[in-house]
Amino acid sequence: MHRLRTDRLLLRPWYVTDADFILDVYSRWDVQRYVGVMPWMMASMDDAFDRLTAWNLIDDGVRGVWAVTESDSGKLLGTVVLKYIPASGTNLAVDLAGETEIGWHFHPDAWGKGYASEAASAVLRHAFAHGLERIVAVTNPHNLASQRVCERIGMRHAGVTDAYYDTRCDLFVATAA
Ligand SMILES: CC(C)(COP(=O)(O)OP(=O)(O)OC[C@H]1O[C@@H](n2cnc3c(N)ncnc32)[C@H](O)[C@@H]1OP(=O)(O)O)[C@@H](O)C(=O)NCCC(=O)NCCS
């Protein structure tokens, strides 16, 4: 997996030693309430290790799931995901090769500092530099913070769609220049 650097951040692979942070983030309703069709709160370290293993399998040299850290201190802040998006009407557990989505989940202590936008911009640049031409993001219509991140990183609002995850989402699109 490519490590990505920004002014303040280092995006790197997840390590086994990060599992307690993963549990801390994904066991919170504030984080999970708009994530997925049926928000699910992580409950155990086993869940966290399973998630970490699944994330590391996504790495194909372009797509992947990055741990976002403060570059000065190494402190973990959150996650940026770049992966195939499941189309509605398919097995949502299996991301068939198709369109690619970007997503972000940060620890509440790290919200409001522009980290999500900074990290996601770096991942978009990486995706386009490695040949991807179109990236989508889908958000719960109530998730204004995430929609604002989409706008801040230059994604275009493309209306509402039922095409993914068997649900209705706001769709944002970024295309290679
Ligand atoms: C979405 C998320 C990553 C945004 O994190 P963040 O630290 O607030 O992101 P940033 O600081 O980079 O930018 C957020 C922007 O949204 C705005 N914002 C934050 N909360 C908001 C809210 N409730 N309503 C409207 N705008 C909001 C901020 O003001 C900022 O915009 P601005 O710079 O123009 O002022 C964070 O809220 C999160 O992790 N949420 C839980 C997981 C999640 O829902 N992920 C998305 C799934 S689609």
Automatic annotation (TrEMBL):
It holds the Pfam family Acetyltransf_3. PROSITE patterns: GNAT. Keywords: Transferase. GO terms for molecular function: acyltransferase activity, transferring groups other than amino-acyl groups. The keyword Transferase applies. SUPFAM superfamilies: Acyl-CoA N-acyltransferases (Nat). The keyword DNA repair does not apply. It comes from the Bacteria. InterPro entries: Acyl_CoA_acyltransferase (IPR016181), GNAT_dom (IPR000182), N-acetyltransferase (IPR051531). PANTHER family: GNAT FAMILY, PUTATIVE (AFU_ORTHOLOGUE AFUA_3G00765)-RELATED-RELATED, N-ACETYLTRANSFERASE DOMAIN-CONTAINING PROTEIN. This is N-acetyltransferase. It comes from Cryobacterium psychrophilum.
